[in-house]
Design a protein that fits this description.
This protein has 9 helices and 13 strands. It is an alpha/beta fold and 310 residues long. It has 2 domains: 7-95 and 292-304, 2-Layer Sandwich (ornithine cyclodeaminase, domain 1), CATH 3.30.1780; 100-289, Rossmann fold, CATH 3.40.50.720. The strands form 2 sheets. The protein has an 8-stranded parallel beta sheet. Strands 1-2-3-4-5 form a 5-stranded antiparallel beta sheet. Helix 1 crosses helix 9 (291-304), helix 2 (91-110) crosses helix 3 and helix 2 packs across helix 9.
Length: 310
């Protein structure tokens, strides 16, 4: 897949299917099967008129200690009318491209405008690299601060390696602390944390937070304080209220109601919601990952390779 599709082109593909009328609210939920030993098997099917596809992904938390990727899997792309198999893609590589593209599409409408951005990034895995590259391609960055998970030497080393990668892109970058969210224009959370990463009261009005690390109703990267004061955007209300612990935990606490969500990615793309970073409150985009996104990017990759069926 390397070189076939930039994050911006992947974001364009996602915008294209939304503008063509795809409704994420009608997409089937992912199936999750616990696997003995602590892992999880995910099944994510989707279909349009011309194509269908399914991602089979494994989430194996113990893999990094073995020198193996935490996310595994494959994507099978099919011709829609005949269901004839067309291509088999690396599922982990597809996810590493797709998720930053979803965030980049949201940030086109939500990120503060008119100035270089100070980016604070939680995480140092493939998604952190993908998000850094996607944001760098989209906006000028004044500084990147990478925050390591507390108490982990490996995380600290990974954070420094990611900061060095950012410096290699020509961006001033260093490692830092979670409290520095107070000075950030953009905060991106790409971790496996099940507990909030920072104090949401510190986020400045007008700053934007993106949280992509969890899709479980009892796991979250941002706290109730941030969710309560933020304008919240999601890929799909149904998916978020099924899977997004970042929103479900505050709702269970009674801090917010089910109507707290301000809008969806489709609303932003269609211009139905104000964007460009409202000055009165933080903007929060919470992503859980959806099968329609995998299909849209897989199709774009397939057609970019010159194998389109049209």
């Amino acid at each position: 897949m390397a070189g076939l599709l930039t994050p911006a082109a992947a974001a364009d593909a996602l915008a294209g299917v939304l503008l063509a009328g795809l409704d994420p609210e009608t997409c089937p939920p992912r199936s999750a099967l616990p696997v003995p030993g602590g892992g999880e098997l995910l099944l994510m099917p989707a279909a349009t008129g011309a194509y269908a596809g399914v991602k089979i992904a494994g989430v194996a938390p113990g893999n990094p200690a073995l020198g193996l990727p935490r996310i595994t899997g494959s994507y099978l792309l099919l011709d829609g009318p005949t269901l004839r198999p067309l291509a088999l893609l690396d599922g982990a590589a597809l996810t590493t491209l797709r998720t930053p593209a979803v965030s980049a599409l949201a940030l086109r409408h939500l990120a503060p405008a008119g100035r270089p951005l100070r980016l604070l990034l939680f995480g140092s895995g493939p998604q952190a690299y993908g998000h850094l590259d996607a944001v760098h391609a989209m906006r000028q960055l004044a500084e990147v601060v990478v925050v390591a998970r507390a108490g982990s030497a490996g995380s600290a080393a990974g954070a420094e390696k990611l900061a060095a990668h950012a410096r290699g892109l020509g961006v001033p970058a260093r490692t830092g602390a979670a409290a520095e969210v107070a000075d950030a224009d953009l905060v991106i959370c790409c971790t496996t944390s099940r507990e909030p990463l920072f104090d949401g009261r510190l986020i400045a009005p007008g700053a934007t937070v993106v949280a992509v690390g969890s899709h479980e109703p009892d796991a979250r990267e941002v706290d109730t304080a941030l969710v309560r004061r933020a304008a919240v955007y999601v890929e799909s209300r149904a998916a978020a209220l099924r899977e997004a612990g970042d929103l479900l935990v505050p709702e269970a606490e009674g801090a917010i109601g089910a109507g707290h969500i301000s809008g969806t990615l489709a609303d932003l793309v269609a211009g139905r919601m104000p964007g460009a970073g409202a000055a009165s409150c933080p903007q929060l985009f919470k992503s859980v990952g959806m099968a329609w996104e995998d299909l849209a990017v897989a199709v774009a990759l397939f057609e970019a390779a010159g194998s389109g069926v049209h």
